[in-house]
TrEMBL record:
Signal peptide (from-to): 1-24
InterPro entries referenced in this protein's UniProt entry, alphabetically: N2O_reductase_NosL
Keyword annotations: Signal
Protein name: Nitrous oxide reductase accessory protein NosL
Family annotation (PANTHER family): HTH-TYPE TRANSCRIPTIONAL REPRESSOR YCNK
Classification via Gene3D superfamilies: 3.30.70.2050
A Pfam family reported for this protein in Swiss-Prot or TrEMBL: NosL
Organism per entry: Zoogloea dura
Length: 166
């Protein structure tokens, strides 16, 4: 095999493997181990799968939360809860669908504020849903109003109980 052919094969192989270009980070949700603790309140998210939330950072690490409210508390004050990451490091944000427990993109999810559903610490929370129809059905059955990600303000989060705000 000639030198030129070897060089061409090597270049083609490296290109196919992604060398020389940044590979896309895997920002899919991570498994939440039973001993994983919420960085906001210290509870174990795996014990309340319908309430879980998670941030996957661009460095492939993740933080898991026992509820959407604690997720938003974290996002609103990251410097208190995480000394390694900033908001620029957030790659993906996930919430569990309250009905199905499947992960859904938090930025596309629908939340119900003011329903009878109580979070893991038995205080008002934000059950999350992958579809508007599921959120509407929950609100109809348990009260509350349906919100989208941009509707979740600092003021709303502060109003949803302060049993463990830091």
């Amino acid at each position: 095999m000639t030198q030129r052919l070897r060089a061409a094969l090597l270049a083609t192989t490296l290109f196919a493997l992604g060398a020389g270009s940044s590979l896309a980070a895997d920002l899919s949700p991570r498994e939440v181990a039973r001993n994983t603790r919420c960085p906001v309140c210290g509870m174990y998210p795996a014990l309340s799968p319908q309430w879980m939330a998670q941030i996957v950072f661009n460095d492939q690490s993740a933080s898991s939360f026992d509820s959407p409210v604690d997720l938003f508390r974290f996002l609103n004050n990251m410097i208190v809860f995480d000394k390694r990451h900033t908001s620029a490091d957030v790659g993906a944000i996930w919430v569990a669908d309250y009905g199905t427990r499947a992960w859904t993109d938090a930025r596309k999810a629908f939340y119900v504020s003011g329903s009878q559903a109580r979070g893991p610490m038995n205080e008002p929370n934000l059950p999350a849903f992958a579809s508007r129809a599921a959120a509407d059905a929950h609100a109809k059955a348990q009260g509350g109003r349906v919100l989208t990600y941009p509707d979740i303000t600092r003021e709303l989060i502060k109003s949803l109980g302060n049993a463990h705000q830091h």
